[in-house]
Amino acid sequence: MTHIELADDLCTTFRGHDAKAPYFAAREVNLGSSWLERGVPRADVLTVKPSYTKFCVSIYECKVSRADFLADVNAGKWRSYLPFCHRLYFACPVC
Hints:
Layout: H1 3-15, E1 24-30, E2 42-49, E3 56-62, H2 66-75, E4 87-91
Parallel strand pairs: 3-4
Antiparallel strand pairs: 1-2, 2-3
């Protein structure tokens, strides 16, 4: 499974298959203005659970290999997502 296939699968899962989607889900979302700033973090998948009382933004980082995951964790890239979300997850394909 490729990175894009994993992100598309996550979006499809969160959106559901009917008109009343349980979540808003988007792929490749810039977390800030790419025109005003350099090095703006980009979330692989961003979901928002629709609610008037418990608004929750979740970011999913897609990792298709162990090496990709370790490189991201060791570099601390994931910390740049924390100001933009309530929850951060790493998603990987099921073997």
